[in-house]
């Protein structure tokens, strides 16, 4: 057994250790509190409380570098350098130090810092991305493209921005596609989005060809931007071709559209909504609720339901679909409609108009209201001589009657448009 003196010494040492740990914990908590203030005084105080904590010095440098109102790059550089003296393996600190040196115009020191970041974290997408962009700004395109390709290969989310920056540095599209961008569907989709946002139709189609050649699995919404751009540019045939390729790259089963109809998914079976040649409608508009309904349909598994709440005299034309047509061609339009308690003298009908012909005439079909079982609505329509596309919308005209606030439900299904000579049979 130990002597009383020895036991006292152990207790004293243990007590001292506890007090030291308690003091360190309190000091650490106080430093964390100061950092949480996100003020220069807080960061400065944190470095005083924990002077050997590299993170506190990094945060102080980051504050002075990126403070919009009072940036101080020299103070940022000193703080980063102090941080690196405690943690020389921090790639983030080397990167931000390189950015600060570059902004100060000290390019040799900036390059050294970026290279140090590469040394400590050679496989980092962020390091390759930021170093590549530094090289791009220096006009060192060969090295820049190599670094940026590495960044995009590791993190495809950089794809669109990488293409945009490199393409503006060198407008050789094939070179950018071959040497900067890896053959990756996510990257190609991001690039297409960038090109569409700049209305660059032909380059976007070239990237689409590369994407399609990979035979990836796509969502139809991935192609909405490109197909919409082609439709707006009156390139309906090309839009239809891209759409057909996109549909083949999805997991959608074959749709039961009648042979000869130019409308894609006239029976609302795909569930695709919002662009391209899919139906486009909001979930709600001006007191009208629009939903797919699996309980009530003319054929297939569902129809489109429009629920009017009886609070407004609705002028509605917000559920539409686009379709390609041939110029100067007679078509037969048809659709099935069911109504339940649909009030007022103006129910639902359909509006057809050419989308790319000046002075195109509007065709309105007969309307359906009240409570009616599934009924066929038909009409003849002839495209203009310079038309290549048609927009078909479900429409309700505002009523001129006194009791005009429409209430009730309408269902629409099996919408079709086919050349008169096709002999299309109704489902």
Notes on the protein architecture:
With 427 residues, the protein is of the alpha+beta class. Among the domains are: 187-252, no CATH class; 284-422, Jelly Rolls, CATH 2.60.120.260. The chain has 14 helices and ten strands. The protein has a six-stranded antiparallel β-sheet, with no helix packed on it. It has a four-stranded antiparallel β-sheet with strand order 4-9-6-7. A hairpin with a 2-residue loop joins strand 1 and strand 2 (288-293). The N and C termini lie far apart (99 Å). Mean pLDDT is 90; it is low at 11-24.
CATH topology of the domain at 284-422: Jelly Rolls
Q: Helix share of residues?
A: 40-55%
Give me the CATH architecture of the domain at 284-422, please. Answer: Sandwich
pLDDT average, as an integer? 90
Could you tell me the radius of gyration in angstroms? 33 Å
Which residues sit in consecutive blocks of at least 5 with pLDDT less than 50?
Answer: 11-24
Class inferred from helices and paired strands: alpha+beta
- Going across the biggest sheet, name each strand in turn: 1-2-3-10-5-8
Number of helices: 14
Count of DSSP strands: 10
Proportion in β-strands = 15-25%
What is the top-level CATH class of the domain at 284-422? Mainly Beta
**CATH homologous superfamily identity of the domain at 284-422:** Galactose-binding domain-like
Order of helices and strands: HHHHHHHHHHHHHHEEEEEEEEEE
- The CA-CA distance between the termini, in Å, is 99 Å
Tell the overall outline. Answer: elongated
Characterize the largest beta sheet: strand count, sense, and whether it forms a barrel.
6 strands, antiparallel
């Amino acid at each position: 057994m130990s002597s009383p003196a020895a036991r006292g010494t152990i207790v004293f040492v243990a007590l001292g250790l506890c007090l030291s740990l308690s003091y360190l914990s309190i000091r650490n908590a106080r430093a964390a509190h100061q950092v949480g203030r996100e003020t220069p005084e807080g960061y400065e105080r944190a470095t005083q409380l924990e002077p050997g904590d590299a993170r506190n010095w990094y945060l102080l440098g980051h504050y002075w570098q990126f403070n919009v109102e009072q940036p101080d790059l020299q103070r940022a550089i000193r703080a980063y350098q102090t941080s690196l003296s405690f943690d020389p393996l921090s790639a983030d600190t080397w990167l931000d130090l390189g950015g600060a040196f570059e902004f100060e115009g000290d390019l040799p020191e900036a390059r050294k810092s970026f290279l140090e970041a590469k040394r400590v974290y050679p496989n980092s997408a962020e390091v390759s991305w930021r170093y590549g962009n530094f090289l791009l700004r220096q006009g060192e395109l060969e090295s820049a493209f190599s670094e940026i390709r590495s960044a995009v290969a590791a993190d495809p989310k950089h794809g669109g921005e990488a293409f945009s920056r490199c393409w503006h540095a060198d407008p050789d599209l094939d070179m950018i596609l071959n040497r900067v961008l890896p053959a990756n569907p996510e990257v190609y989709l991001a690039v297409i989005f960038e090109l569409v946002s700049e209305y660059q139709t032909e380059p976007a189609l070239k990237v689409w060809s590369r994407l399609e050649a990979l035979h990836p699995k796509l969502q139809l919404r991935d192609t909405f931007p490109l197909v919409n751009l082609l439709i707006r540019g009156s390139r309906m045939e090309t839009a239809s071709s891209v759409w057909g390729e996109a549909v083949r790259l999805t997991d959608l089963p074959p749709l039961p559209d009648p042979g000869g109809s130019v409308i894609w998914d006239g029976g609302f079976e795909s569930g695709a909504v919002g662009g391209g040649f899919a139906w486009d409608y909001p979930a709600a508009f001006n007191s009208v609720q629009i939903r797919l309904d699996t309980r009530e349909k003319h054929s297939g598994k569902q129809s489109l339901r429009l629920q009017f709440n009886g609070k407004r005299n609705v002028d509605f034309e917000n559920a539409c679909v686009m379709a390609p047509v041939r110029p100067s061609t007679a078509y037969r339009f048809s659709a099935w409609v069911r109504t339940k308690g649909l009030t007022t003298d103006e129910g639902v009908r359909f509006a057809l108009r050419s989308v790319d012909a000046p002075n195109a005439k509007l065709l309105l079909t007969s309307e359906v209201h009240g409570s009616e079982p599934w009924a066929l609505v038909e009409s003849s329509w002839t495209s203009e001589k310079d038309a290549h596309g048609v927009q078909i919308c479900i429409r309700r005209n505002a009523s001129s009657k006194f009791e005009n606030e429409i209430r009730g439900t309408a269902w629409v299904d099996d919408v079709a448009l086919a050349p008169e000579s096709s002999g299309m049979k109704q489902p």
